[in-house]
Predict the structure.
Amino acid sequence: VQLVESGGGLVQPGGSLRLSCAASGFTFSGYSIGWYRQVPGKERELVARISRFGINTYYADSVKGRFSISRDNQKNTVYLQMNSLNSEDTAVYYCNAHLYGTDASTDYWGKGTLVTVSS
């Protein structure tokens, strides 16, 4: 099982990035996928989540209207389009796969991609 994030990097305030999460080794379409982020000294927080077939989405208040999550089940990939980035978006972003009805301890996680918003 693998979740591999990509697309992170350095971006100026007000800029945009698109993160990708490529999955393999499990039935991708059976899982909801979430993007989390974490900064040193703080708990990992949920940024956005998308249901198995992309019908339902959730966004943290801090990113509503700026971030957009989508998925392509044919490519086993989830995307996070991030616009109007600011310094508070600086974090390591992680991809998470959750199977409905199971305990979170069985979730799959990627290793993360660093997003730095700075001038």
Summary: The CA atoms of residues 13 and 86 lie 5 Å apart.
